[in-house]
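Feature request disguised as a bug report, sorry. It would help if multi-protein outputs had a clear separator. Right now it looks like this:
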Amino acid sequence: NSVSTILAQDCNNLYQRMLHTNLEDFGIDKAMDVDVKLPPGQVNLHNCYVLLGCIEALLDLKMSSIKQDDVKGLGVLFEMHERLTAILSGRPKAPKKDKNEFFIRLIEKRTPHISVDSLASFLDVLREGDFASSQELSNVQSTQGSAGRKLARNTSFRVFILQQCNAILERAIEGKKHHARVILACGGIVQNKAVVENVLRLEGCNTALSKMGVPLFRTCETFVLAACNNAALSGSENLVLAACTAIRNVVTIAISSEPHIIEEVVAGETGGATAGIEGLGRVTPHTQFYSHLHHLLVGLVKGEFHKEAEIVTNAMFDFCSCYPDELGKAVAALALQTCKE
């Protein structure tokens, strides 16, 4: 309709204008006051977060209908987002008991403005290493194709997308816990289910996680295994940490409310990956999924990613605890091996 058309035009105009601006045009630079102890710093910090959300919303807008000639624009927006994030991360940290704690939590406990659908599309792009297929690239200028590959393979951009996914998943996990507490507080009465779901929806906790869970797991698995085979890769530490955190979050979501993620990850596999893993019996979707986690852990240990290996190990223990009949022996063997090391 006319309203949506006008809105789309306004958003596109804003996008085009943003491509020709920089942070200084908004009065934002490294020298600005972003200390929340004083009102001027609070105002500046608030403006920074508003702009950050605007950039993320434009990234989401363009990813929802990506065209090859938009890739360079996405790169410009991401560079601005990266500069702004660096300024925010370098601001003075207030004490834990600071009187402005409420304000700090309000601006830092934020959900990304990029939707689950767009993040799922970005994950496919990262895994494939480009924004378009080779056939599509043959129909555009080579400079546009190289821009797509450059952004898709940029480690900072990969970490940024994974962090956005983790922020949404972690908020969803908190929402599940909140849901459970409310149900218990209501005495487990079924009639309150609709009320609880409406509350969670208003809080932004209900998202289409199933659309993001499978591509997120597969993309992170690809990144982790690649980094383990090439531990000297520049910037791989932050990428592997973000990827392992995402894998743990996907496992948590899968065992709590989205079990079909497990079946989709292992769909079409024959079960050969489970061979040689101590404690695994018959081939099931759960033992197949466990084999993915097992191979990730082996790679992390060999690559000496110790902190990341601990994250995956904890995810494995959580996963096994939900399926003791199928994975009890495997987790016992893993626990014994962990104690020996």
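(second protein starts here, but nothing in the output says so)
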Amino acid sequence: HPLEDGAVGGTPLRNTRLLLRMRNAWRITRWDPGAGTPTYLLASAFTVTPSLCAQATRVDCVIDSSNSIRGTTNFRHFAHAAESLLACWSFFRRYPAARPRLVLKDLRSIDGVIWAESLVRLMGCEVLGGIRAWQYYLPMATLNAAGCAVRGALRQRSGNGYKGREMKWLMSESDASELQQRLHRNHTAGGVLRVGIANRRGSRNLSNVDAVAAALSSALRSVQASSRGGGDGLQHFMRVDVNVVADLGGWTFLEQATWVSAQMLVVMPHGAGSVNYLFARPCTAILEVYPFGYYLPGEYLNLARAVGALGYTAYPGDTPYNDTDRHSSPAARYQARSVSLAPDPARVAEWAVEAVAASAQCRRHQSQGARAPPREAFA
């Protein structure tokens, strides 16, 4: 349910009366894309060229301009690179006996993109790019004689995060679990309720992050000390730890992944760092904060959903999709994304108390035998 009556500043609106109304309109809502909205990629999302050998010894996943973000060739935006890399990771896992290889066409490259390079190392695959990627397209018989490869590629980019076009990152929750296990970061709470706020430098930073952190800490400790017990989920924790990170961008891949994995609650402005939801544990509650006129919960929160986390949105208004439609021009989108954010601390604190209870309920459901859907096989 929405938590209303917050505060927002610096929203770029032309209508002054609307601006005044929006200053008291922060809403926090559990993100529910609706029944039938796909979380995972299907096997049919890939084109597959089978190996001509009796047993494929190599599995190749092709990334090009038709199935990845357009307008750049070197994947400088590591989160957009992750869209393609994670889809290939899921494809590789359907052929566990074959050696994986990324084929980067159209001069695409991840060279110097540290987060993406680290993910590729974690995936354990070879990368074929540049002129070698062009040479790759020899007759299929020659390829198979050399490597007995099965080749796959996404038919198109899987979405953009808007309603009805949610981004699909993986084919199953187990694909994320395998990456997490490779990092050997399987944190348990250990009696500590860890709440992490990952801020940003520059645009979409939380200008009141200290007030938000103080409100979170006060609310959770107050409920913990009360005699409510039972259903609030806090009775299992001896201590509440609220920690603030100024910007995850200055951290290594491993440090970012480890930090996200350690939290039970995460608060983060919308941005590239949100791709680290990949390493959230199941039942982690994640609150993503959006600026007015720029609301794309189906992007990173669908990744959170894919790993079994609980997604929430904080938005300064009542009609986020309509507002986003009205800011659809490149100039308006840039302006919408260039502000600072000041979500109401009291509303965020209320969310945290409810989110802890929801997380506890999620874990109880898991302990009763709920399982992620099985991996879909290719024909």
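Even a blank line would do. Unrelated, but nice: DSSP finds twelve helices and eleven strands in the chain.
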